[in-house]
Amino acid sequence: MELVVVVDSAEFPALSIIANSIPQFPARLYVNEDLKLGIFISELNIFPEIHKYMANAIMEWSVGHQCKLIISAAGIMYIEPTLTNHIVVVSLLPS
pTM (2 decimals)? Predict the structure, then answer.
C-alpha cells in the first residue's frame, strides 16, 4: 500500500503517529492500484461537529477517483437525533 493522501484539519488535535521512527499524520489514505483499493486510516476520534466535513472530503476524493464502494470499518458515536443532526449512509456509486 502506498501513502497517497494525508488528512489534516485545524480541528484535529496536535499529535503525530510514529511508525518505524517516522512521524506520520494520524489520518491518511493508502492505495493499492493493482487491487483498486483505497483505505482511509485514522487514529483520531473525530469530533462529531466535523463528521460532515470529513465525510464530504472522503466523498469528494472517492467520486473524483471513481470509487465504486465505500465501507466504513469503524463505528460512529451515536448522538440522539434532533432536528439539526442526521446520519447519512453512503452506498455504491454508479459505475
Answer: 0.63
d(CA 54, CA 50): 6
Residue ranges per structural domain of the chain: 2-47
End-to-end CA distance of the chain: 24
Q: Which three cell numbers stand for residue 11?
A: 480541528
What percent of the chain has a predicted confidence (pLDDT) above 70?
A: 75
Distance, CA of 46 to CA of 11 (rounded, Å): 9
In degrees, to the nearest 5, what angle opens at C-alpha 42 toward C-alphas 10 and 79?
80
CA 31 and chain centroid, separation: 13
Distance of alpha carbon 20 from alpha carbon 71, whole angstroms: 28
